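Please predict the structure of the following assembly.
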Amino acid sequence: MIPIALTATLVYALLTGAVALRLLALASRTRELPELLLGVAYLLGGVLGFATLVVGTAFQDSAPLLSRVLGGVGLFFFSTGHLSVALMCWRVFAPDNRRLAALFWLLAAVLAADFARNIGLEGSPFPPSASPWYYPGMLGRTATTVWWVIAALSYHGRLRRRLALGLADAPAANRVLLWGLAGVATLAGSLVITVGTVTGPFDLPHHDSDARDVLVMVAVTLISLGAVASWLAFLPPRRYVAWIEARANAAAAETAGR
Amino acid sequence: MTESPVFEWACAVLEREARWSRLQARGTVRLVVRDAGLDTRTLRAPQLHIIALRLLPKELRSRGVDDVDALCTALSECPGSVEAEARATAPVDPEEVFKRLGRPG
């Protein structure tokens, strides 16, 4: 099981890192906010946040101070990545919506309080689930991922209707779908981790547990599938884009022939 | 919420030519725009052209409007000045953002 989890983690890190660098390079040319926010989300939330938190946990016993610093840096990256996704969803899909603006600022306040309290007072990025302080950060980060899924998949539903009338760009519509599916995989993976934490296996870091290994493998595999979807969305091979365009052209020809 | 100048123009034409109330005209156009997966805030002339020719005729006939074909043809020809205003003022459609995000470097 461990080799599968390690391979999935490697796939995840490589694909997510490549997508992040590609989006940040695009942002440096266009100076536009959406690519900057997504690039930051993939780089900080996706690659550096996870890596720093994992390395920090590994030093828990041998170098507690280093572990505490890495935990703080990792949580900052992780929560900043989640907030970048939420800000992107608000500014791109509903910039005039005051309720979503309020939701974004509420999530930002919750995650800032989570960081200040957990790192400043407790010295740990993730308190045990028995503590009430486990929940605000977990719920805040989960809410940003739910927002991502809803924004992407509901907008894709509209693009499907446009496609039927020849009013949408097929690769762009497919990109929105893939980004939404990446959100679904990320949400599923994070829910597996949450369930593992609340029910026990992840709350006992120094205990051997078969359930822990299974949950890690499932979560990492799900999150890696999300990384594959993100790679297809934002770094698509030319053959993949050509296939999407050919499928859309064939569907349009079929509709016109009716 | 500010509607697109193209949407406002289409509603004004429908209100005048079909002798409808403002509410009825706006409601009908809004319904058709939504059914096409479009947004009244970002509606542009090429999009109106398609929905005026493919979706509106059925809606107008079901509401007993006279000379539907001529009215829909008129609605499909949004003036360039209105489209230019929409281009300058309408918010960016998310589809445009996602087109850019996958563009080869």
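DSSP finds eight helices and no strands in chain A. Chain A touches chain B at residues 22-23, 25-26, 30, 32, 34-35, 38, 92-93, 95-96, 155, 157-162, 165-169, 171-173, 175-176, 179, 233-234, 236, 238, 241 (CB under 8 Å).
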